[in-house]
Amino acid sequence: MFKLERRGFFRRTTRLVADARLSSADFRRIGDELGTRPFCARKIGHVAAERATAPTRIETRWNGRESVVDVAPGDWIVTNLTPAAAVLRDRDGHANTYAIKPDRFADLYEPDGRQSEFGAVYRAKGVVEALALSGGFDIEAPWGERQQAAAGYLVLNGPDVYGNNKETFEATYEVLR
Asked: Is 16 within 8 Å of 36 (Cβ atoms)?
């Protein structure tokens, strides 16, 4: 289950809270409750990725901690890059890094042919649907960990529904009209 909390001046800011993984049907219902239709977006930033060789704990950061996940050998450790393939860093200099399970990575990314300090460079394959959340989110991500941001977007990417910090989304995606 999820709830949309209305906050702020005239209760115009909406924060999504969910204690269970969200489904694509939940994504649609959230759009209905927000009174908005999802928009399509394509990732224009690249990613650098390499496979984990040992169990590792990854902390995704963007001006604070967004989520934490334990990575198993074979999982992909992914770092967001700008469209010019520079590492995307928050105001404190932390690289925007996260993890993707091996069975999803090939569906999402294809090789770009370049290398970076964080591994081989890849470009995104598909288009996602997104909903803006002016008050951010506090949700359970598909990988089972809490994901939080003060402002951001709820993203439907294939079967997965997850949050994306506003600044990282706007730096790495373009809205399709």
From this structure: no
